[in-house]
Amino acid sequence: AFFQPKELPLKGKKVVITAGPTRERIDPVRFLTNFSSGKMGYALAEAANKLGAETILVSGPVSLPIPSGVTVEHVESAEGMLQAVLHHFDDADIVVKTAAVADYRPKYVHEQKMKKQAGDATLELERTTDILMTLGQKKTHQLLIGFAAETNDVEMYAKGKLAKKNADYIVANDVTREDSGFGTDTNTVVLIGKDNFEHHFDNMSKKQLATKLFETILAHEEDLQY
Ligand code: CTP
Ligand code: CA
Where does CTP bind (predicted)? Predict the structure, then answer.
């Protein structure tokens, strides 16, 4: 079997997890970002390590303690995160893209602090690279798990992202719930997989959920083997 069905089911496996927001610079003192706290990604890294994996955590700027036994690589921008993940991709067994990657960055990064002008201003933006989609196109043996932050039609959009990005699973998150999503200690998610696989989790702490997500995915992968 691909995974060892024991207490350390991820022993001998390399797991790469991305967490937190990215920062996209405007000038030396300003950037674009989002409200991601990194808690879900850090909880997943802690869980992967406890389940026996060699765990690499590629982290955007957050203020959380580093889980013991986990190797952290700090990145700032979407481009920095892409490079760090690609560096580890070939020998990774599982990649979990928990990070809230910026979809856009300023088209021009000003070398000096921008001065205000009379009246309104506009900021020109360009798209960042979709890291999950890039990995979905490149993957050979890797199990690819994405997240989806949605405010409406959660499962429909998550299924769309699963297919479009060639991921194996999407963890879909209703970010309008007060007990879920950005910044909270708890989360309510639906795990979506191929062939209409769907597993609904009750609201629980992100730490508890992290372990349950790995256990549920590993159990389903085992089922698929036979
Ligand atoms: N993602 C990524 N690179 C990006 C944007 C998103 O790897 N540049 C990943 C996220 O880490 C997440 C998944 O794609 O695992 C879905 O992110 P989400 O923001 O929900 O979806 P998008 O595809 O960006 O679509 P939209 O924001 O328009 O809903
Ligand atoms: Ca997005």
Answer: 103, 113, 147, 161, 165
